[in-house]
From TrEMBL:
Protein family (similarity comment): Belongs to the OMP decarboxylase family. Type 2 subfamily.
Metabolic or biological pathway, per its Swiss-Prot or TrEMBL entry: Pyrimidine metabolism; UMP biosynthesis via de novo pathway; UMP from orotate: step 2/2
Organism phylogeny: Bacteria, Bacillati, Actinomycetota, Actinomycetes, Micromonosporales
InterPro entries named in the record: Aldolase_TIM, OMPdecase_AS, OMPdecase_type-2, OMPdeCOase_dom, RibuloseP-bd_barrel
Family annotation (Pfam families): OMPdecase
Residues at the active site: K96
Catalytic activity: orotidine 5'-phosphate + H(+) = UMP + CO2
Record protein name field: Orotidine 5'-phosphate decarboxylase
EC number: 4.1.1.23
Keywords: Decarboxylase, Lyase, Pyrimidine biosynthesis
Gene this protein is translated from: pyrF
Domain (Orotidine 5'-phosphate decarboxylase) ranges: 17-263
Length: 279
C-alpha cells in the first residue's frame, strides 16, 4: 500500500504544488448566480470538480459549507469526494476535528476508514486536546495510506495567543505540535504522511520546521492577504515541503470553467515560481 506521503509526493510531481479549497461561501454562491441552498451548493461543487478535478493535485472541501445544509449538504459532500477521487485529485477534507481519544476514534473511522461514505485521502485535525489524543487518527491513517494535517501556526490573527504561548519546558505550544509530528514522520520516504498547517499570512514563523519531513499546508493565500512571493519569508529552507492553498482567490473566477482553470493555473504558476526561486 502506498502511503499518503508517497501519493502526495507523486501527485504534486505530476500536477504541481497546489491545493484548491471548495468553500461555497454565501457570497460566492450569489456571485455565481446560484441560490443559497443545497441546489446551489451542488451546482457549485460539481462545477469546481469539473473545472479542476483532473488537474489540481489536492482539492480541499471545507466541510462547514456543506454541513450548513444538513443531511443533503453532507450527501453532496460525499458525492463531491467521490467525484474528486475519480478525477484523480487527492481529497483533503478540512474538518479540523479533535476530541478525547475515544471520540477521535470515531472521527478516524468517519474519514480515514476506506469503508466509510466520507472516506478521504487526508483530514485536518486540531491538537488542542493534546497531540496524543489524535493517535487514533494517526493509526488509522497509517493503516490505510491516509494523511492527517495538524494545526500548528494558523493563518488567523487570533491563533497566535494560543499557539505561541510558552509551555513549561520553554517551547511554544506550536513547537510541541511540530516536534510531535516530526517524530511521527521520522525516516519516512519520500515524505511523511503527517502534515502541519502553517498559515501563509504569518511572516517568519520563528519556529523550527526543519525536522518535519512531512507536508506543510499553507492556507491564507489570496483572500486573507498571503502571497506566493511571501512563502519564502514564512517557510525559509522548508519551502520544498510547502503545499500552498487557495480557496476564494480561485473560486471567485467561476462559474465559467475556463476562467476557473485560468485562475488555478495562475495560482500554480505563482507558487511554482515562489517555491523554486534560488536563495
Ligand atoms: O490556518 C488556517 C487553517 C485553515 N484555513 C482554511 O483554509 C481556507 C481558506 O480560504 P480562503 O478563501 O483562501 O481564505 C478556509 O477553508 C479556512 O477554513 C485557513 O484559512 N487557515
Amino acid at each position: 500500500m502506498e502511503s499518503f506521503g508517497a501519493r502526495l509526493h507523486r501527485t504534486v510531481a505530476e500536477r504541481g504544488p497546489l491545493c484548491v479549497g471548495i468553500d461555497p461561501h454565501p457570497a460566492l454562491l450569489a456571485r455565481w448566480g446560484l441560490s443559497d441552498d443545497a441546489d446551489g451548493l451542488e451546482r457549485f461543487a460539481r462545477t469546481v470538480v469539473e473545472a479542476l478535478g483532473d488537474r489540481i493535485a489536492v482539492v480541499k472541501p471545507q466541510s462547514a459549507f456543506f454541513e450548513r445544509f444538513g443531511a443533503r449538504g453532507v450527501g453532496i459532500l460525499e458525492s463531491t469526494i467521490r467525484q474528486l477521487r475519480d478525477a484523480g485529485s487527492l481529497v483533503l477534507l478540512d474538518v479540523k476535528r479533535g476530541d478525547i481519544g475515544s471520540t477521535v476514534s470515531a472521527y478516524a473511522s468517519a474519514y480515514l476508514d476506506p469503508s466509510s461514505p466520507l472516506y478521504v485521502d487526508a483530514v485536518t485535525a486540531s491538537p488542542y486536546l493534546g497531540v496524543g489524543s489524535l493517535a487514533p487518527m494517526f493509526e488509522l491513517a497509517a493503516a490505510h495510506g491516509g494523511g492527517v494535517f495538524v494545526l500548528a501556526l494558523t493563518s488567523n490573527p487570533e491563533g497566535a495567543a494560543v499557539q505561541r504561548a510558552v509551555t513549561a519546558d520553554g517551547r511554544t505550544v506550536a513547537q510541541t505540535v511540530i516536534d510531535e509530528i516530526s517524530q511521527l514522520n521520522r525516516g519516512a520516504e519520500p515524505l511523511g504522511s503527517f502534515g502541519l498547517v502553517v498559515g501563509a499570512t504569518i511572516g517568519d514563523t520563528g519556529h523550527d520546521l526543519s525536522a518535519v519531513n512531512g507536508p506543510l499546508l499553507a492556507p491564507g493565500l489570496g483572500a486573507q492577504g498571503g502571497t506566493a512571493a511571501g512563502l519564502r519569508t514564512v517557510f525559509g529552507s522548508s519551502l520544498p515541503s510547502v503545499l500552498p492553498s487557495y480557496s476564494r482567490e480561485v473560486l471567485q473566477a467561476g462559474p465559467d470553467l475556463a476562467a476557473l482553470r485560468d485562475a488555478a493555473d495562475r495560482a500554480l504558476a505563482d507558487c511554482r515560481a515562489a517555491l523554486t526561486t534560488a536563495d
